Amino acid sequence: MTILTPPFVSKLEKADKILLAGAGGGFDIFCGLPLYFSLLEQGKTVYLANLSFTELEHFKGSWLTKTMMEVTHETVAFDGLYFPEWYLAKWLKEVENKEIPVYSFVRSGVVPLIENYKLLVEKHDIDTIVLIDGGTDSLMRGDEDRLGTPKEDYLSLAALQAIPECERMLMCLGFGVDHYHGVSNDLTFKAIAELTELGGYLGCLSLLKEMPEVQKYKEIAEYTFAKMEYATSIVSSSILSAVDGHYGNYHSTERTQGSCLWINPLMPICWFFDFEVLAKRNLMLNQLMMTEFHDQIMREIMRIRAVYTRVQNRNRIPD
To answer: DSSP letter string over 200-217?
Structure first.
């Protein structure tokens, strides 16, 4: 390890077939697109997957399991529908003439999601999985005063515990965006510090607007936003605002009007963490392993949080 080769770079250099998977659903896989295009340039074979917020059950397509659809540009849908995975596949076909599937997971419990990951690992001989979180609430261990939107992140993290045969990492992009959902920036810094102390912090990289990979990320995001104007991604629009140099309470989408944002220079930083260290620190994951259905996840989270009479409370970050 040197200043030019942080641990996450060394791990990715050794990887051959990589799965990038959106951890929290929706547009999370979009946050992995700069990494995706960069890895392709390095000659890696890269696959895309995402926990989907779309009601996939309503569409005909190639179902690989009961809870996983192989979404392609040929999947039958219609413009205006909330379907980020489909628009991504369409852009890759229309602009780059590549037929790239986006494996889309129905929001389920942990057991079905494990089945999906195992099938993809076997089908494509995956050796490395990078979970992608748009935001940083996946770093919350479970006893913080506010967790943001933990249900999907904890679902993905718990499922990945059952895939020890792969190198596993978590990448977070969008520091401060979870402020919109009440997550403490102070406790996020504390989580990163604790993971650093435990040996779980693998380094970071910054997205610059001049980078071709970042320009493609922006182009795909704007293409998708135009298709579904009512559901512009708050996370990706905030990150891209920060990439362009905006700061503070800057709003690029009407969805955030009336709230107070903190667009900041830390948002375009990709933070990488060792999965095993992260999972051991989390207080929730082991208790979620036997869940079959998605609504069980939040019930378990609430049950576990009720056990902790003391929570981590945020402090004011010094000026």
So the answer is: -EEEEEE--TTSHHHHHH
Share of the chain above pLDDT 90, in %: 77
CA distance 46 to 117: 15
Instruction: Report whether 203 contacts 6 (CB < 8 A).
Output: yes
For residues 249 and 241, what is the distance between their CA atoms, to the nearest angstrom?
Answer: 11
Please give the Cα distance from 237 to 215 (Å, whole number): 13
Q: What is the pTM assigned to this prediction?
A: 0.95
Residue 71 CA to residue 60 CA, distance in Å, equals: 10
Confidence of residue 319 (pLDDT cuts 50, 70, 90): very low
Domain residue ranges in the chain: 7-175+183-209+270-304
**Which DSSP symbol is given to 61?**
S
At which residue do the structure tokens 């060792």 appear? 274
Question: Over the range 110-142, which residues count as b (16 or more CB within 10 Å of their CB) and which as e?
Answer: bbbbbbbbbebbeeeebbbbbbbbbbbbbbbbb
Encoding tokens for residue 86?
Answer: 């489909």
* Structure confidence by residue, pLDDT tens digits, 164-184: 999 999 999 999 998 777 888
Number of Cα atoms under 13 Å in the Cβ half of residue 197:
7
Angle at 81 between CA 77 and CA 82, to 5 degrees: 115
How remote is the C-alpha of 57 from its chain's centroid? 22
* Torsion over CA: 152, 158, 162, 166 (sign): positive
Look at the domain 7-175+183-209+270-304 and name its fold. Answer: Rossmann fold (3.40.50)
Q: Which two tokens stand for residue 164?
A: 């020890």
Sign of CA dihedral 188, 262, 183, 278: negative
Residue 208 tokens read as: 């610059």
The CA-based diameter of the chain, rounded to the nearest angstrom, is: 55
HSE at residue 299, side-chain half, CA atoms within 13 A, is 8
Q: At what angle do helices 33-41 and 212-227 cross, to 10 degrees?
A: 140
How far apart are alpha carbons 105 and 68 in whole angstroms?
5
